[in-house]
From TrEMBL:
Name by which UniProt lists this protein: Pyridoxal phosphate homeostasis protein
Modified residues (N6-(pyridoxal phosphate)lysine): 39
Gene3D superfamilies listed in its UniProt record: Alanine racemase
Organism: Lentzea flava
Function of the protein: Pyridoxal 5'-phosphate (PLP)-binding protein, which is involved in PLP homeostasis.
Length: 232
């Protein structure tokens, strides 16, 4: 089987899972975006997924992503997300390639990204990353601090708050985490009308996420497999 055939088969399976989950939740398939997590995979795989119809791709390391995006500038309409933990000193570099940063979890990071976006003369879409269990060692803003961070993002004028994301903690049932995130986003929308996105669910738990209102599922392994590109 060629790599293209392998990816096509994987994509068909993932699409079927998403469609069934949407049907079970009484939602339209168009409400859920499939974000292909291409971190550690070569640019050639992104090109194949693009040929198969995907347009949204996610990376988690600035150095790898910046090189990959430069190589793939010819993919018209491709949109790139930064989904990994981000250090403030990488803000300027990330703004050069990312269309959206999905992992904003502190006021200081938001300020750094706002400065970088302002210097570039652009508006940057962001998601507020929420730590559902309050353990910030894995990244994420504790729920009690979400309002303060959302306010800082909005006041910057250079960032557009598009919603929130989370990774379900291993100590919690995914359904509980996704229900909590949905509640957070519901509260955000009252004061921040652009914050409509709910990024939740990955290869192993996307059905639970969709049932709790996820508008974006981040899928890597189910699409690309468990093999990884050898990095320097």
């Amino acid at each position: 089987m060629s790599r293209r055939d392998e990816l096509a088969a994987n994509l068909a399976e993932v699409e079927e899972r998403i469609a069934k989950a949407c049907e079970a939740a009484g939602r339209d398939r168009s409400e859920v975006m499939l974000l292909a997590v291409t971190k550690t995979w070569p640019a050639s795989d992104v090109e194949l997924l693009y040929e198969l119809g995907l347009r949204n791709f996610a990376e988690n390391r600035d150095q790898e992503a910046s090189a990959k995006v430069r190589q793939l500038r010819h993919l018209e309409g491709a949109r790139w997300h930064m989904v990994g933990r981000l250090q403030r000193n990488k803000a300027k570099s990330v703004v050069e390639w990312a269309d959206q940063v999905d992992s904003v979890d502190s006021v200081r990071l938001a300020e750094a990204l706002a400065r970088a976006a302002h210097a570039k003369g652009t508006k940057l879409d962001v998601l507020l990353q929420v730590s559902i269990d309050g353990d910030t060692s894995r990244g994420g803003c504790p729920i009690p601090d979400v309002g303060e961070l959302a306010g800082a993002i909005t006041r910057s004028g250079d960032l557009i708050l598009r919603g929130a994301m989370t990774v379900a903690p291993l100590t919690m049932k995914p359904s509980q985490a996704f229900e909590a995130l949905a509640s957070v986003v519901s509260g955000l929308r009252d004061d921040h009308p652009t914050a409509t996105g709910v990024s939740a669910g990955m290869s192993g738990d996307l059905e639970d996420a969709i049932s709790h209102g996820s508008t974006c599922v981040r899928v890597g392994t189910a699409l690309l497999g468990s093999r990884r590109l050898t990095l320097p």
